[in-house]
Input
Amino acid sequence: MAASPGNLDVQDLHLQGLTKRFGDFVAVDNLDLTIPAGSFFALLGASGCGKTTTLRMVAGLEDPTEGTISLGDADITKLRAFERPVNTVFQSYALFPHLDIFENVAFGLRRRGIKDVQKQVEDMLELVELSTMARRKPSQLSGGQQQRVAVARALINHPGVLLLDEPLGALDLKLRRQMQIELKRIQDEVGTTFVHVTHDQEEAMTMADTVAVMNAGRIEQMGHPADIYELPRTVFVANFLGQSNLIAGKRTGVSGDDVVVEARGLTFLVPSDRCSCTTEDMIVGVRPEKLTILDKADEGQVPEGHNRVPGRVTDVSYTGVSTQYLVDTPWGQELGVFEQNVVVGDRCDVGDEVVLHWAPAHTFGLDGSAGATAGSELED
Amino acid sequence: MVAVVPTSAQASPAQVAQRSSKTGYALLAPGMLWLIVFFAVPFITLFLTSLQAPSPTQAGKYVPAFELANYGQALADYWPQFIRSFIYAGIATALALLIAYPLAYFIAFKAGRWRSLMLVLVVAPSFASFLLRTYAWKTILADESFITRTLNTLHLLPEGRILNTWIAVIAGLTYNFLPFMILPLYAALEKIDPRLVEAAGDLYASPTTAFRKVTWPLSLPGVVAGTLLTFIPAAGDYINAQLLGSTTNRMIGNAIQVNFIEFRDYPTASALSVMLMAVILIMVFTYIRRAGTEDLL
Output
């Protein structure tokens, strides 16, 4: 065991063909995944998507129906939970109520008969800034403090992988932001691989280097948060991670490096390398903040080659930093627009005839054969 | 009771505090009254009776006195019954704990949809009267019964029989008070979050260690409650010893009963009762302090 955090022998975590069935229900469906050593990895998905089951299989709390789990070259699939070099920060923490904070943190060390418990626990409590709380019981601590004890209790064992199951779910918004930064700092300091399960897309994007979006037991898309956000590959991801305006149409040809899509009598350009499909039915997507809203009278200002949609403003929400518009298109679909409030007083009003436009480079093309609503109703 | 928030705009905090403290006393009154009439007064009467002396004029009557010697005499006459009571009750409590813990554990964690049914089955025997159930055990443990014959075939009975021996008395005590052990144990175990056991496993505790370090300590309030609810009535019981034991297995409850009902020696019977209460009280306090569960009870 490493004497201090930071110089760990951290290894990649591999999941191969991992499957879990409960009766007829497939919770996790043939998952292949490599989580690089030392990364902060988020499994993001709505409840019931299989993310927690995946985590529990890695922890050894659930037996996989099929597939293997290995840490570096070592296959740990058959090891019982207490034999695995993996520790978990449980949802709502599961701190031992009959033990004080010191003994909670010391629990794993004592079970393995490790010496100099005193020193290690003190160092760990210092890392999570709880040195003064050592002799308190968990019930005497605030939610945020309990959360830090749960992290300390797991991390002190220098696990090969630290699993976090919705670790911030029980905290209020402000504390959650604070703990996000805190967890990130701790991860930087100890260098262990963190696998973080959450349904909160903002949390996943803020904290993780790599996000995997899970749906119905499979991974829909995986990558750096910005890459996934800017270029979603499926309708589910486009709707679940942030918001998207999705317009269904048909592929009609190619113009230079762009695919031409006809939809609702309008023509859209989508860069070929931003299309995740080759189907004829296509969905043109664009994020709300990429749209520019212009008064109908100023339509002449739309740059050449931009995609454009006419419409009428049906709702304006002013939030200080930005203004959020809902714009009704001629075919009755509502599109969302976020605009930074850069210019004071220059806003559209409800009922205004407007034109929305955006650069083709901000457009993404998705497979339209399954409709445009997957994931939109799951917004948690 | 302390009122923090005034209930109406006009009432000053002091008025409100006074009103709500009155409400507090009003709520306490029925219970207090009950305890005074049916516990405090009888107990004082019992205590005074234990100090009475024989009437110098009328044989068989007793007059108020301060005859502390009653206690010494009662103890000298009945110390074997005292000791026997605590030994029998202790063994019965230990046996009940051994039987009840696995059962309560199973009901709490493994029974699933059978849980309610199993709890009903635990309580079901109590629908028949205590006396009736103990009589039934006379038949179960009788010399010609299946159990006795089987055990005799195996040469497992030192006295060749069960009925009218200490074994029968302890068996009866264990059986009769078992539900009082199971129910508090179940209540304590059922409250334990199974994720704590998972967390222990995640932190390198084998299933046995997880039980020793997490489940058992967290179930201690149930163990303490269950052992008290079994031990206290078992130590004072006289029916099991009377129906299932012989004269050599009499307990302190039998001595009290005989002195009150047959000998009409009220001072001795009262002295025995007071001593039984005192000893049990001391034992309970020591026990709770030892178990370190004062704040859990």
Q: What stands out?
A: Residues 173-190 of chain A form the longest helix (18 residues). The radius of gyration of chain A is 25 Å. The CA atoms of residues 261 and 267 of chain A lie 6 Å apart.
